[in-house]
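To the wet lab folks,

You asked to see what we're planning to order before we commit. Fair enough. Below is the target structure as tokens, and below that is the sequence we designed to fit it. If anything looks off to you, flag it before the synthesis order goes out.
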């Protein structure tokens, strides 16, 4: 067994499956001798690493660590580190105690009364605490049981009250007088003499302890520098040893044989066979039981199910591969095929599991795997939507924010995260930030905006006006409604892709079933929105459906020649598709739920309308973020209105333009004079508002455009096809970094 384990481990390409105990006569194996010892040593090494704070960058060159050297050096390092760590713990505990005593003594040092004078009297009652002297004096003066009292105060709020009670002393006179008074009592320390001197002694002791602690930390740092490379190498060696010695726990074993199963990339199967034959010769039988075959686009090429039943005979075979060779192998449930090797024909699968997943995306899309893994990794039989995230999420983000200035900042922050951190999560977030920032810059140029200012269009475009507007200004308000229509069209496209992905994913269950599960919904949605965008019953529909992108004159946002689909398209294409989709969808629900499927299907059918409407949030965020940036600039620069266009007063106050006009045009309104033009104090306050305001807009862009974009991907898009639940491909082996092979 050991040579097989070592050979497979060295290859580092087999994802082992866990034996589930389902075969009669086969039990899970026991760890190889030495597993417990290696585990204990590994725990020790990791504990020493934690104590010393050893990091990956502390490693030196790779080294060979044999067992004898490991035991000797580990014992030596452990003894030194444990001794210093115990001393450090003792010093830290004493230091905390001294600091607590310093904190408790400080008020008494401020009071300036010897500690032995604050207690030990027979009749005189003494209390020390923090409170208002005048309130305390009034309370004691009003107390009938107080014959005489005296108050002493320090530089702060510490008050010492000495009370001589009238009549027999019961020890509670002062406490009764303090009821209702804002007075926080302090416990008198168990010491004598001057509190100032005692406090000075404590501070001196604190300095001694801090010096000792620094010395211990220095000794530990010296050990860390000497032992870091050894500890990292020892951890790697022991991790490999533990992996190998505990591997039999995943095997199906008898007294004389064992069966190990796992998944290996198909193109490396021959490499596995050659390595095992070199290691153990003819004492091992290697059999390819299943092959998950997929087309180039990731779709399963075979759809039959596999039989994972037990062999008819329950006798323990003498050698692996002897059990029940009569039953031919069948196809795998994951969409692949079960194929036997030329050497054997058992085709018996002891561990029924789906193949693990290796996501193979282009480099640009790899950071977006992080967004996918936040919910779940794709199953092996599913299409990986990472590339769609790359193509849609940054575009949605940039479309919603669309500002060159904000985009530059997003790219800068993203680059810092990507370049300064080694952690994959931060690097992925940084790359995603750069993609989102890039699209924000692109749309910012098209909108002609730079931190909410509109001068960019005059600089970049020969016409002096950008090709797109966000639609916040009254003169371009029709763009705002056009973006709502564009949001609906984006939603239709996005959701249609989702339904197509779902249809492809389920093709291994048959075309009819896949259509009922996904195609019927797509048919219903396309039919409904074909009718919505047609001119059938146009008077009952919003005009923006026909005027936003058609040749309708000056209020057309983009003249794409679209003024609605023909009435016949809605009546004879849209409505029939809607009916066909609805009936087939309900039929599919009835197959699932029986008669209740009619009700369920009827209620769920409204989602093809509501899901598309969810994308209206894109247009809403465009206007919301534009409005926030506008308000920030309005407060700082001021704004005047000319022919329905808002202009920021960057060179003169708005009142100047109101008096002299703007390029010969009359200023119809001054919306706000601007803090910049109100004098130095207002200008300083305006700069603060300008900077903080744009930072807020920048951050809210993440929480609005970012979260809304993610929601559309996760809730609307993924819901149409994505299940997830795939396992990451984790081969049995180890990528050596700190050790060299013996």
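Sequence we intend to order:
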């Amino acid at each position: 067994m050991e040579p097989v384990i070592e050979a497979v481990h060295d290859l580092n390409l087999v994802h082992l499956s866990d034996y589930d105990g389902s075969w009669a006569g086969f039990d899970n194996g026991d760890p190889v001798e030495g597993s417990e010892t290696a585990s204990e040593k590994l725990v020790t090494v990791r504990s020493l690493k934690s104590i010393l704070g050893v990091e990956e960058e502390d490693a030196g060159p790779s080294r060979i660590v044999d067992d004898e050297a490991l035991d000797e050096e580990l014992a030596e390092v452990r003894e030194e580190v444990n001794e210093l760590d115990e001393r450090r713990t003792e010093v830290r505990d004493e230091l905390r105690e001294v600091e607590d005593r310093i904190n408790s003594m400080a008020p008494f040092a401020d009071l300036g009364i010897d500690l032995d004078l604050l207690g030990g009297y027979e009749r005189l009652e003494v209390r020390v605490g923090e409170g208002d002297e005048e309130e305390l004096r009034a309370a004691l003066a009003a107390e009938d049981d107080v014959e005489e009292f005296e108050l002493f105060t320090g530089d702060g709020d510490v008050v010492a009250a000495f009370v001589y009670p009238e009549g027999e002393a019961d020890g509670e006179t002062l406490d009764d007088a303090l009821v209702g008074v804002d007075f926080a009592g302090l416990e008198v320390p168990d010491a004598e003499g001057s509190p100032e001197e005692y406090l000075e002694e404590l501070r001196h002791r604190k300095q001694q302890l801090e010096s000792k602690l620094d010395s211990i930390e220095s000794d530990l740092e010296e050990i860390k520098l000497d032992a870091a490379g050894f500890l990292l190498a020892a951890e790697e060696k022991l991790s490999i040893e533990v992996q190998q010695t505990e591997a039999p726990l995943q095997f199906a074993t008898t007294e004389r044989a064992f069966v190990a199963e796992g998944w290996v990339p198909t193109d490396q199967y021959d490499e596995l066979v050659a390595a095992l034959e070199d290691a153990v010769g003819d004492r091992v039988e290697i059999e390819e039981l299943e092959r998950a075959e997929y087309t180039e686009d990731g779709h399963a090429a075979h759809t039959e199910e596999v039989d994972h039943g037990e062999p008819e005979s329950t006798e323990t075979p003498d050698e692996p591969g002897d059990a029940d060779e009569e039953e031919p192998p069948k196809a795998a449930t994951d969409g692949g095929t079960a194929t036997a090797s030329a050497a054997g024909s058992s085709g018996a699968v002891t561990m029924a599991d789906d193949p693990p997943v290796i996501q193979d995306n282009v480099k640009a899309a790899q950071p977006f795997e992080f967004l996918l893994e936040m919910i779940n990794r794709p199953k092996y039989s599913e299409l990986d939507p990472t590339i769609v995230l790359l193509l849609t999420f940054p575009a949605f983000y940039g479309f919603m924010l669309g500002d060159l200035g904000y985009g530059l900042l997003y790219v800068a922050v993203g680059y810092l995260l990507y370049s300064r951190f080694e952690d994959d999560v931060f690097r992925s977030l940084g790359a995603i930030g750069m993609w989102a920032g890039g699209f924000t810059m692109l749309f910012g140029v098209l909108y002609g905006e730079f931190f909410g200012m509109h001068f960019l269009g005059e600089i970049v475009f020969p016409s002096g006006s950008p090709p797109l507007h966000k639609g916040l200004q009254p003169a371009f308000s029709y763009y705002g409604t056009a973006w709502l229509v564009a949001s609906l069209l984006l939603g239709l496209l996005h959701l249609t892709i989702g339904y197509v992905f779902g249809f492809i994913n389920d093709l291994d269950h048959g075309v009819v079933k896949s259509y009922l599960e996904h195609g019927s919904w797509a048919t219903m949605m396309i039919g409904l929105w074909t009718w919505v965008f047609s001119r059938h019953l146009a008077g009952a529909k919003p005009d923006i459906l026909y005027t936003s992108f058609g040749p309708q004159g000056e209020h057309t946002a983009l003249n794409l020649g679209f003024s609605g689909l023909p009435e016949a398209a809605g009546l004879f294409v849209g409505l029939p598709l809607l009916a066909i989709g609805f009936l087939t969808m309900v039929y599919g629900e009835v197959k699932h739920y029986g008669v209740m499927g009619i009700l369920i299907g009827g209620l769920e059918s409204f989602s093809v309308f509501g899901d598309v409407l969810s994308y209206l949030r894109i247009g809403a965020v465009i206007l919301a973020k534009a409005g926030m940036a506008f308000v920030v600039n309005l407060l700082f620069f001021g704004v005047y209105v000319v022919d329905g266009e808002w202009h920021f007063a960057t060179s003169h106050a708005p009142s100047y333009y109101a008096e002299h006009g703007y390029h010969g045009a009359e200023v119809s309104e001054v919306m706000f004079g601007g803090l910049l033009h109100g004098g130095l104090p207002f200008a300083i306050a305006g700069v603060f508002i300008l900077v903080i305001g744009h930072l807020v807009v920048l951050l809210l862009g993440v929480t609005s455009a970012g979260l809304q974009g993610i929601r559309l991907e996760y809730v609307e898009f993924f819901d149409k096809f994505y299940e997830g639940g795939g396992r990451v491909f984790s081969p049995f082996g180890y990528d050596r970094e700190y050790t060299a092979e013996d």
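Structural context that might help your review: The mean pLDDT is 85. The first helix runs from residue 2 to 11.

Thanks,
Computational group
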